[in-house]
Amino acid sequence: xxxxxxxxxxxMGQLAAVESRHRKVIADLEEEKRRHAQDTAExxxxxxxxxxxRERLLQQLDFEQAQVQRLEKEQQRLWGQAEQERxxxxxxxxxxxxxxxxxxxx
Length: 106
Hints:
Layout: H1 2-93
């Protein structure tokens, strides 16, 4: 009978150890699940922030491209005016007079 009692105590100890390991595994899995959910949420936040930054940069690029086009047109216009002025000045220097070389009133 003593042998059965020792065997029962030993089995109870093993059962308690298994239950303890089982609880620890469950707790570890729950923690891993929580961390995964948190990482996923943070990843979603990062993705959202990156998408917003991409949109902002695309808008900035569009604005700057439009500004470059506007400045290029302005440069061409000013270059044309400078060429006209240069032609007028050289016509006047050759003795053409102030009235010559002008297409119309300024």
